[in-house]
Amino acid sequence: MTLSFCPGMVRAIMLGLLTLALTGCGEPDDPPAAEAAPAVTEQTVAIPDTAQSDAAYYDELRARWLELERAAQAEPEHAPAAPFQQIVEEPQPIASAPAAAATPAIGIIIDDVGHSLIRGRRLIALPAPVALAILPHTQSAQRLASEAGAAGKTVMLHQPMESGAALPIGQGGLYAEMNRAELETTLQANLNSFIPIQGLNNHMGSRLTSNREAMDWVMQVLGARGLFFIDSRTSPDTQAAFAAEAQGVRHLSRDVFLDNERTAVAIDAAFQRALELARKQGTALVIGHPYPETLDYLERRLAGLEQVEGVLVVSVEELLARKYRR
Ligand SMILES: [Zn+2]
């Protein structure tokens, strides 16, 4: 028997090594890395766009990272006792501030928020209207939503949806096996689990977003509540935008993932891509994650961006306004 490695296996091995590096000692409950290989290979073959070809691989990295984040919350965070007033009193950008329509603009959403209060507060303190997409039923969901809302930042429900690679998606997940009543009950409970919520985007979801009927059910709930929808585009077969359009739900789709590669160099390259897209097409929508590397980068980069790059950072609502004003 000849020993050979397909790209999926190489990735799976790299993933295993990365997980070991992150945990220090590995996690006994982790599935063997090789089990992930077929799904990754299937996704890689199915997706023609190189920017998306690694979607399943990066989804898996995120799922592993979130498991570590969740586990870390067993130890309480020692946040300052009363930072709420302090944050409210700082001068804050207004989410709906009008922006000159001629100036190229990017919107930034940070996903997977809710496990860490400290990182969530770093996002709220960013000198730009960056949106927080908060996972339901996470330890700091309500506190961060309140503080972000008070600071004029956009708050979204980051709705877990079934992944084609069978990755863990966390509490409050929507699955293709659910009937309409089950899906609606779960979604409504998530939407009622913290306030404020202005819109929703999908966490994972490469399987569920490809299911038009399920997406129609989701969009009917959003339409009734007057919420917007952002398609994270974790699958090239996503039906979400079509369903949103059919239900009259205002929607946008992600253009660039900021931090698929968690290095300052790769994050900067992705950010530059977003700026170029915005200059070319007027707007671009960026999605990132509350990784330390991403927070460090945004804290350095966002102040004075318009002067340096000629591109504004605007709220998601402003991006939607520009789209629907046309
Ligand atoms: Zn997510």
UniProtKB/TrEMBL annotation:
Q: Which CDD domains match?
A: CE4_DAC2
Keyword Ribosomal protein listed? The answer is no
Query: Which Pfam families does the annotation name?
Result: Polysacc_deac_2
Q: What top-level branch of life does the organism fall under?
A: Bacteria
Sorted keywords for this record are:
Signal
Can you tell me where the transmembrane regions are? none
**GO biological process annotations for this chain's record?**
carbohydrate metabolic process
Q: What is this protein called?
A: Divergent polysaccharide deacetylase
* Taxon lineage: Bacteria, Pseudomonadati, Pseudomonadota, Gammaproteobacteria, Pseudomonadales
